[in-house]
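Sequence dictates fold. Below is an illustrative record:

_____
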Amino acid sequence: AKAALASADAVCIDVDSTVINEEGIDVLADHCGAGSAVAELTASAMGGSMLFQDALQARLDLIRPSKGDIASCLKAHPFELSPGIEGLVKALHFKNVDVYLVSGGFRLMIEPVAEILDIPKDRIYANTILFDEKGDYSGFDAKEFTSADRGKPRAVTYLKEKFGYKTVVMVGDGATDMQAKGEGAADAFIGFGGVAVRDAVEKGADWFVSDFDEMTAIVKGVSS
């Protein structure tokens, strides 16, 4: 995994509990008054005991966030980046490595994070919440890769086929991130435990880190 990271031409990073230090959907649920029920479903999805699309549908049906709800949530609770992620992304960009945010979270909530990290919007692969003409919740776009189980491997495979990347590394904290390597899409999977440690991920990762600085050192070539 360290060799793959050192030579990668693209790195795909999960957002919730990886780039940011919490689960965005749980924050939104709390803001909309559906916190505890949604947190249970998030744990089921992350632990791999429930199909992702079923957990996504169930959580959104409980929250039913309007466009205004999301805007007020982001204003009241701007996301906090995990320590070291800015340095890692800067180091990757300095080496002309393409960085993607690949997330089962929501594009509208991830865009402000991507902006801070200088990641273009077209390098976000995430879920799109649909609204009616009044801005009320009307569903989600089932065409997005990450709206369904095994969506992350499909997103990585798509990127490899479209851009001809030779070495792609997936980074994340959850079972859905690990699928990207299991299906042969990513060349390596680096598990991140700086926010939450999930046993299956710690055991199954090619390399497990709790601190992004460990990865930055490899990217910069100051550690092996």
The longest helix spans residues 35-47. DSSP finds twelve helices and eight strands in the chain.
